[in-house]
Specification:
Blueprint (H helix, E strand, L loop, with lengths): L8 H9 L8 H13 L14 H4 L7 H5 L4 H11 L7 H22 L1
Length: about 110
């Protein structure tokens, strides 16, 4: 039986986005990821206010807001910073903000106990 050498969209995304660690601009990495799953044309409803790229670029097609709107403020913000880590610039800063929001939520839960 012959092997199939076709690349899945997920495999293509992983192959093409590896350059992010080598200095590819985060916006370019988003474009590559979006193309791997949706093709070269951006979603027609995309805009910076209602569908910002750093919230809509996830390969699942799910928008960050659709998940975080079911969470409290601190957990939602932590999730948001994980979701977009590095897509707007400094990934380390995004991870530090994630940790800070989780710490705030832990403190709130301890005080409530």
């Amino acid at each position: 039986m012959a092997e199939r050498n076709e690349e899945t969209p997920g495999q293509r995304m992983l192959r093409e986005s590896k350059g992010l660690a080598l200095g590819i601009d985060a916006t370019e990495a988003q474009r590559i990821m979006r193309q791997a799953f949706t093709g070269p044309e951006p979603h027609p409803e995309f805009n910076a206010v209602t569908h910002p790229a750093h919230y809509t670029s996830h390969p699942s097609g799910i928008e960050c807001i659709d998940i975080v709107k079911h969470m409290n403020f601190c957990i939602g913000n932590a999730f948001k910073y994980l979701w977009r880590a590095g897509l707007k610039g400094n990934a380390i800063e995004d991870y530090e903000k994630t940790i800070r929001y989780i710490q705030i939520e832990i403190e709130r839960l301890k005080e409530a106990a």
